[in-house]
Amino acid sequence: MMNVDLTSRQREIITSAVHAVQQRIRWKPGKGVEHLKTRMHYGHLPSNASIVDYHAIITSVVSADQAELYVFKWRNDLYPTIVAEYEDIIWLVMFSESGILETAFPPTDPEEYLSDSRFYYLG
């Protein structure tokens, strides 16, 4: 994991995206339910979990006092990523610069997952 030099404008965009996700969980149309089903399939959520349950976990993670902020760099895009514990399990929430969720899940090995060279630790 390397440091990344961000412009002040990029920092503003990331800050705005974090605030947007903390205020309201938004997915691309149809993707929230699709991701919910995927999390249930992998056993990350119980089979009777609802989108409300999934959103509660996401809200807890993005609002956690001990949350860590990363940015995932893909081509020319930055994807802010918040990592925090939820019920003793590390969850990762990744979203776009506009605050639209991309994914939210508990990586099997968070340290290994975040060691990908495209992740940059911000604090």
Would you give an account of this structure?
This protein has 123 residues and is α+β, with helices and mostly antiparallel strands. 37% of the residues lie in helices and 26% in strands. The protein is built from four helices and five strands. It has helices at 8-23, 31-41, 51-63, 110-114, and strands spanning 68-74, 77-86, 89-95, 101-105, 119-121. A five-stranded antiparallel sheet has the order 4-3-2-1-5. The protein starts with 7 loop residues before the first helix and ends with a strand.
In which order are the strands of the major sheet placed? 4-3-2-1-5
Radius of gyration: 14 Å
Strand content: 25-35%
Helix content: 25-40%
Low-pLDDT stretches: none
Q: What is the distance, rounded to the nearest whole angstrom, between the alpha carbons of the first and last residues?
A: 12 Å
Order of helices and strands: HHHEEEEHE
Name the overall outline: globular
* Tally of DSSP helical segments: 4
Q: Tell me how many strands there are.
A: 5
Average pLDDT confidence is 94
How is the main sheet built?
A: 5 strands, antiparallel
* Structural class estimated from helices and strands: alpha+beta
